[in-house]
Amino acid sequence: MGSLNCTEHVNAVTCTLQVSRTAAPYQAAQPRSRIYLLCFTLLVATIVGTALPAFAQVDSNEVHVQPREAPKPAVPQADPSLTTHTRPMRVDVNLVLVPVTVTDPDNRLVTGLEKENFQVTDAGVAQQIRHFSSEDAPVSIGVIFDVSGSMANKIDKSRDAIVEFFKTANPDDEFFVITFNDKPQILQDFTDRIEDIQEKLTTITPKDRTSLLDAIYLGMNKMRQAKYERKALLIVSDGGDNHSRYTENEIKSMVREADVQIYAIGIYDLNPAMPEEAKGPALLSEISDWTGGRTFPIDNVNELADVATKIGVELRNQYVLGYRPSKPGKDGKWRKIKVRLTPPKGLPPLHVFAKTGYYAPSE
Prior knowledge:
The structure is a single chain. The strands form three sheets. Strands 7-6-5-8-9-10 form a six-stranded mixed β-sheet, sandwiched between helices. The protein has a four-stranded antiparallel β-sheet with strand order 4-11-1-13. A four-stranded antiparallel β-sheet has the order 3-2-12-14, with no helix packed on it. The chain has three domains: 2-55, no CATH class; 93-133 and 322-359; 140-316, 3-Layer(aba) Sandwich (Rossmann fold), CATH 3.40.50.410. It is built from eight helices and 14 strands. The chain has helices spanning 13-27, 31-51, 155-167, 194-201, 212-222, 248-257, 275-291, 304-316, and strands spanning 96-103, 118-122, 125-127, 131-133, 140-146, 174-180, 184-191, 231-237, 261-267, 295-298, 319-323, 334-341, 351-354, 357-359. By secondary structure, it is α/β, with parallel strands linked by helices.
């Protein structure tokens, strides 16, 4: 049986073991059983003899048992937290969403209106409102905070106002803060922790000039990472721009292309000393009006906190109208939006604030 040992170096290990296990009983059998044992041995020898030529070139020092193939490592899945701030993909690009604020003659918010109270035209054509909401949906919010030298005597009240603004937030809101003087910088990236922002605001020292336009550009660019469909910027500044690389026309074009509401608190001097300070109110008003936001000019820093709170509450109490343009354009041109209101009987004349248009998608 020694000739059968060679099968230990091939895939016939099991067969060899079977043979070795059955050989002992047959050796102790009666003489007639030896005939069967001889036949069985010849059969095994024939099988082994057939297999050996195929392994004639195999080194006896090699391991001839085929190792089991190691399982392929699983492809790692992306951690959802790594994509928290990526820009969401809009599946239905034909759906136009229009946030709307309604106020009464005393500038108080008007809530409780229904879809039937609103009419929307797109490029002069009446549209069917398919989506209507007045719920407090989460918002991605950025604060653009002027920390130039002229803010030195207003910085404390301005900090307090920003904190009050954040106190009106939805628990699911996310925020970032950009400060600007000679150049803008991100003071706090997206977070939902107000205390993080409050702590960093205490480290600010007003100095240098005012790069307002550059700060707006950085804020609009940062909004590309927002995780919510609704997005808003709050600008807190005391004057016009005097140190930006970007021009007014460039920023105006960028604002019109983006789907971001802009609010501003302008802390203006009644008698501005510089030409850019005199232009500041008009610039912020024009930009905010395009987006459906508003600019609140004040001349007393003690009003800052109340105005900031008012803006925060306004963001929480907006109507959102959604429609699919009946004549969608694919030419990339500006399409004018007009929102009209038919108030219930008994109400005074109401004011409507909504974005004035959008750029149609391009082919």
